[in-house]
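Forum > Structural Biology > Help requests

Title: Can anyone predict the 3D structure of Chemotaxis protein methyltransferase?

Hi all, first post here. I have the sequence for Chemotaxis protein methyltransferase but no way to get a structure on my laptop. I'd be grateful if someone could post the structure tokens.
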Amino acid sequence: MTAIPVLETDEISDGNFRIIAGIAKSYAGISLSEKKKGLVYSRISRRVRQEGFGCFDEYCAFLMSEAGSDERQHLVSALTTNVTSFYREKHHFSYLESLLRQQLYGRLERGEELRIWSAACSSGEEAYSIAMTVIKCLSTIPHLKAKILATDIDSDILKQGRLGSYASVEAEALFNDGILTSCRLEDDRVIMSEKIREMIRFRRLNLVEPWPFSSCFHAIFCRNVAIYFDRETQDRLWGSLSGRIFLGGELYLGHSERIAHPERFGMESFGHNAYRKVSSGRRRS
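Reply #1:
Sure, ran it for you. Structure tokens for Chemotaxis protein methyltransferase below:
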């Protein structure tokens, strides 16, 4: 067994911090101020050691090399937080229920395809929670057409989502809500049903790069992503997301995220961190 190296220092130099901050900004839109140096060290020092580097100078040199392209993705994953759970921020799923039952039911019953996007899906709990909400609200529509796009920048975390298998302790909310009809228990694992899994397509996507689709959606969950961006990058994201929402559709953000002057993007606030598309606004790509 190979020993994990000990780093030469317990801090990161200004030069190395600028390299890491520059990669994070250019690759994923993540804005890191000087105040984040301690956070950066704590998030990536273990990664540096695991990959066999004895110091940040070596690691940063590798990041900037042609061979470091894959490691740049791992760096971004280490800097961000993949914290999620089933039905996290339950008020958003209540809004989605109202949208499905009150605004969309008739249109979907007549054959319109439902489209929902989980834009930072992490390990998939959010996407599966969306799918189970759809089944709960629209089970009486015999030939329902529904597609859920689940995207994330982290390829490794997407693999977990595709498996649709979670420790039972992580799925406690499913037991509490009595909705295990959409999944089954196997030993200490909760396995999502084939019907639920077929509804979801997991894809890797970097939100600050051009999006390889032109689809519009009835609802978009984009939660706890914009907290990593500066104001300019946030505004570009809001414009791009608004341009992908049908009129009357809804956008749900994380608990500490807000759109300043949502009318610029054809949106209006209607609930906790929730916005409705009310006009075309200024579409941004």
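The CA atoms of residues 153 and 206 lie 5 Å apart. The chain has two domains: 14-79, 90-163+196-277.
Shout if anything looks off.
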